[in-house]
Amino acid sequence: MTPDGVFLASASKDGQPQLRQGETGDWIGTFQGHKGAVWSCVLNDSAFVAATGSADFSARVWNAVTGDVVHEFPHKHIVRTTAFERGLTAKRLMTGGAEKMVRLYDLEKPEAEPFTFGPAPDSIRKCMWSLDNRRVLLSYLDTPGIDVIDLSSQTVVKRLRHGDGDGPSSVLDMVHTPCGRFMVTAEAH
Q1: Alpha-carbon gap, residue 158 to 82, rounded angstroms
Q2: Residue 59 near residue 52 (C-beta atoms within 8 A)
């Protein structure tokens, strides 16, 4: 949600992620340029910048108004998830995927090497920032639950596991609620 309305960004296996008007679903534009499935497409909090992660082993940052690529970050394997730091003045992008590594890019210095940590216990399915941007939350392809990682120490400070009696399940997706106080997850059983 922004002062200009609600916007939705969608990833696509055909390599053509899209931007849509949130209330109507009307097509606004397509981010063109990836050569493989796009597993992640997210907007920053102002909705002026988008990021995508793809099976073509790259993450890209886009001007969401013009559709132009602003930065391209090569990876060594599939990029499954992207997340902007929280806040209207956020300057960092996080990526994760099949490399089992987390990368943090400083968007004010895109030519600089990213801050990295890992390896994670499994391929990273989804990454998300905490509200204060000091911790990150990671879910994995086949490992149940969510790890909360403190960025200053690069250690897991909490493991969130949920199960309904059949044991813990893999977290497919996670988002903060609009108020920011809660997190909603989608899980596979």
Answers
A1: 21
A2: yes
- Give the pLDDT score at 24: 94
- Burial label for 64, CB within 10 Å (0-12, 13-18, 19+), is buried
Q: At a CB cut-off of 8 Å and minimum separation 6, what does 144 contact?
A: 161, 163, 167, 168, 169, 170, 171
The list of the chain residues with pLDDT below 70 reads: 163-168, 189
CA–CA separation, 76 and 103 (whole Å): 12
| 1 token code pair | 């949600």
With tokens 């905490």, the residue in question is: 130
Q: What is the pTM of this model?
A: 0.92
CA distances from 66 to 32, 49, 70 (A): 11, 10, 10
Q: Rounded to an integer, what distance in angstroms lies between the CA atom of residue 25 and that of residue 46?
A: 19
Q: Collect all residues with Cβ–Cβ distance below 8 Å to 89 and sequence separation of at least 6.
A: none
Which residues, in sequence order, are CB contacts of 132 under 8 Å at separation 6+? none
| Buried-exposed string 37-62: b where 16+ CB fall within 10 A, e elsewhere | bbbbbbbbeebebbbbbbbbbbbbbb
Structure confidence at residue 90 (pLDDT): 84
* 54-106 tens-digit pLDDT: 999 999 999 999 999 999 999 999 999 999 999 888 899 999 999 999 999 99
